[in-house]
Design brief:
mainly alpha; Serine Threonine Protein Phosphatase 5, Tetratricopeptide repeat; 589 residues; 32 helices
């Protein structure tokens, strides 16, 4: 596929109104000043008045259906026209048009060839035939059509553009250049044509001629620095580094405040192994207010994949982010990247403020809204989550994530019916995203469990696991709920075990597995697993500490059980029975 800015120009006849139908169908329209070399319209047998009226009506119906996109019905109407007048080229053209729109290009080509054999003087027939050849990848035939047309219509520039494009598709770059030369002869040197020729020469690895095209633009516009920048970039890509630097230096002479030149120099120094100078130029670019924030943002995005493995690059990335927001404090893109930087450093509150500034500057940046909602969750600010997810839903009613976040907030406030409604509504907008659908079904499972609708909870979790059998969180949560219900413990054990295999060392998963074992009466094994959970970072988790106390009590280690119940009490909120266990020194389940 060629590298081209031009596509075949689509030249469509005007919509036909009833009063003009008879003129078109008679094929006696005034010929162009200079006709194609194909045959002129053949003389036709005149239709009766009745057939003419019937055909006008059918033809107009066909045109109307075609404009509505009902191509198969339009085809039927045009075929009926052809039954009345089998040699009508205009009808054949319309049949070819609807066949082309239906993707039936071989059939369209056949009928258009016949139309041209009847009336070769109509330019539209030839152009549509060329488009059908393009769609069928018959590029040589497309070239042939346009070559004939430019001979017949030497003043129609659009035909030359289409010919050049066809030549590029047909792997005829030299011919395409010659066609562009003919356009230049007619309209003079233009940026579009010169840059197109330059790209073609680069593809042909003819850097000398490519440079000559850029030099023509430089000669015509000696103070336009972008042509020097393009020249330098081309030389750099071609390995001609000295010439590249000469072009870049010219940019600095003409426009010292130019921001893009620093990006070009950063590439130059990186290519020549001068990494420190490369980063210095990047800093100069990011600190330059004349270079827009979106361009800088794209550079940061390109750096992102390398950050985890390259600490030096990570430090440079952070520096560039700070420069971006310092240089463009009132730009939404700059605030977004600053928020992302802060979020990566676990500064969730500051990150949220940056993301909020971002949406205040541009409320339509969905990714920033998404990050705000994530920060609300990280900060456990469910009031803010409820408010801001509702705002996001109003702005982006077909995005599923805000529905999920709102439901999460509503679950915290025990608004289970509202949460269920939002989850079901948001699920309608989840398309080709199984991971997100899993979360919707899992949260529905949570809601139904809390409402003691256990069959519905099981169904929701089963759907989630069917979508992603290896989702450790879903497996863990479903297993835990089954253990709480003292139901299907063998199934719960299998899921809890798998969750730990998928993500070993996760305290909550180890606790769930231990709790399933506890519910199964396997207290020694339960003690081992819940003890591992505490030793892996859950020493301040009230629920896990209370679980451990329960296991110890079952094993007859009452003194230790009391100790862990006390620890659970100090750590935070345990079960509703925790105080009773402590006061009565007895186990309640």
């Amino acid at each position: 596929m060629p590298d081209t800015n031009y596509s075949a120009i689509s030249l469509c006849p005007r919509i036909i109104v009833p009063v003009l139908l008879s003129l078109l169908l008679s094929c006696k329209a005034k010929p162009p000043v200079q006709e194609p070399t194909a045959e002129s319209p053949k003389k036709k047998t005149e239709l009766s008045a009745y057939d003419r009226r019937k055909m006008d009506f059918l033809f107009f119906e066909g045109i109307s259906l075609k404009l509505q996109g009902n191509y198969s019905q339009a085809y039927g109407k045009f075929q009926k026209c052809l039954d009345i007048d089998p040699e009508n080229a205009a009808v054949m053209y319309e049949i070819g048009s609807v066949l082309h729109s239906m993707g039936k290009n071989p059939d369209a080509i056949a009928v258009l060839k016949k139309a041209i054999s009847i009336d070769g003087s109509n330019i539209w027939y030839h152009i549509l035939l060329a488009e059908c050849y393009r769609s069928s990848k018959q590029y040589a035939n497309e070239v042939s059509v346009y070559q004939k047309l430019v001979k017949s219509y030497p003043d129609k520039l659009n035909l030359y553009y289409s010919l050049a494009t066809a030549q590029l598709y047909n792997n005829q770059p030299e011919d395409a250049v010659r066609t562009y030369d003919k356009i230049e002869e007619k309209i003079g040197i233009t940026e579009e044509i010169s840059l197109q020729k330059q790209r073609i020469y680069v593809k042909m690895k003819n850097i000398g001629k490519a440079a000559a095209e850029l030099q023509k633009l430089i000669d015509a516009h000696p103070k336009e620095v972008k042509y020097y920048t393009e020249l330098g970039n081309m030389y750099l890509d071609a390995g001609q580094k000295e010439k590249a630097m000469q072009a870049y230096q010219k940019v600095l002479q003409l426009d010292p405040s130019n921001g893009e030149i620093h990006l070009a120099l950063a590439d130059y120094y990186r290519e020549t192994g001068q990494t420190e100078k490369s980063f210095e130029e990047l800093q100069a670019a990011f600190g330059n207010p004349n270079l827009d924030a979106d361009t800088k943002g794209r550079i940061l995005v390109n750096l992102t994949p390398f950050l985890e493995k390259d600490q030096q690059m990570k430090a440079q990335y952070d520096t560039l982010c700070l420069l971006l927001v310092e240089t463009h404090p009132d730009d939404a893109t700059a605030q977004y990247f600053y928020g992302d930087l802060l979020a990566g450093k676990k500064k969730h509150s500051e990150a949220r403020e940056a993301f909020r500034k971002c949406v205040a500057l541009d409320k339509n940046k969905f990714i920033a809204w998404y990050e705000i909602l994530l920060m609300d969750i990280e900060l456990e600010d469910y009031e803010a989550l409820q408010k801001e997810s509702s705002e996001a839903m109003e702005l982006f009613p077909t995005e599923p994530a805000p529905y999920l976040f709102l439901a999460v907030a509503q679950i915290q406030f025990k608004k289970y019916d509202e949460a269920e409604s939002n989850l079901k509504q948001g699920l309608n907008f989840v398309i080709d995203n199984p991971a997100l659908a899993v979360q919707f079904h899992a949260y529905l499972g949570d809601i139904y469990h809390k409402q003691k609708k256990y069959a519905a909870s099981d169904e929701a979790y089963t759907k989630a696991i069917e979508l992603d059998p290896d989702n450790a969180s879903t497996l863990n949560n479903y297993a835990y709920y089954l253990s709480v219900r003292n139901d299907q413990l063998q199934k719960a054990e299998t899921m809890a075990k798998k969750a730990n295999e998928l993500q070993p060392g996760t305290p909550s998963y180890m606790d769930t597995y231990g709790w399933v074992l506890y519910k199964s009466g396997r207290y020694s094994e339960a003690k081992e697993w819940i003890g591992k959970a505490i030793g892996s970072g859950a020493e301040n988790n009230a629920v896990i500490l209370e679980h451990y106390g329960d296991v110890l009590f079952k094993l007859g280690e009452n003194a230790k059980a009391y100790e862990y119940w006390d620890k659970a009490k100090k750590a935070g909120k345990g079960s509703d029975l925790l105080d009773k266990k402590i006061n009565d020194k007895k186990l309640y389940e």
